[in-house]
Amino acid sequence: MTVDALTRTDAVSEEAATEAPVDSKPQAESTETAENATATEAGDAPAEDKTETPAEATAESPKPKRGRPKVATTAKKTRTVELILTVTGTADGEWQAELKNGSKWVAKGLEIPAAAVSRAAKELHSDLSGPIDEVINAARELQAAKVAQLEAELEKAKLALAELDA
To answer: Cβ–Cβ contacts within 10 Å for residue 69, how many?
Structure first.
């Protein structure tokens, strides 16, 4: 904007201020006021009086509050929910889950299959699935060793039973 444009704006606003006062009401309101004036001239009473006294106008205008004015933000406030899911596993391959909402327990001691834990970990993140799969594989190896030991004991028991029958 140039200095010339600023001075023209000031000159125009000064001319407007010296001319007849302009009605600041919207045209619809001025039309209603004109209709009310013609209705009162004709002898009809207006439905309601829309004129305000200066005391009413100042009473309705809000007083400025102290301190910094609040600025409307465009940031969306998000509500966060804190859910704590704890999944624990043993070396035997038994898995349990507990769910806590804030300070309230939603579920405690739920038995979960190891395969479900592995699938859930893969769905959540690859960094989670690696360590969990290692624990599950170690439990699988331990159970396989137990099965081999029990099968060996079963074979010995069958041989002992066969000797007793003979």
So the answer is: 6
SS (H, E, C) the chain: CCHHHHHHHHHHHHHHHHCCCCCCCCHHHHHHHHHHHHHHHHCCCCCCCCCCCHHHHHHHCCCCCCCCCCCCCCCCCCCCCCEEEEEEECCCCCEEEEEEECCEEEEEEEEECHHHHHHHHHHHCHHHHHHHHHHHHHHHHHHHHHHHHHHHHHHHHHHHHHHHHC
Contacts of 104 (CB under 8 A, 6+ apart): none
pTM above 0.90, yes or no: no
Burial 131-165 (b: 16+ CB within 10 A, else e): ebbebbeebeeeeeeeeeeeeeeeeeeeeeeeeee
Tokens encoding 41: 């001239």
Reading the block at residue 86, the tokens are 């704890």
The pLDDT of residue 57 is 55
Q: Which residues of the chain have pLDDT under 70?
A: 1-62, 64, 69
| 97 closest CA partner among 112, 82, 114, 84 | 112
Residue 27, Cβ neighbours under 10 Å: how many?
A: 8
The per-residue pLDDT for 21 is 52
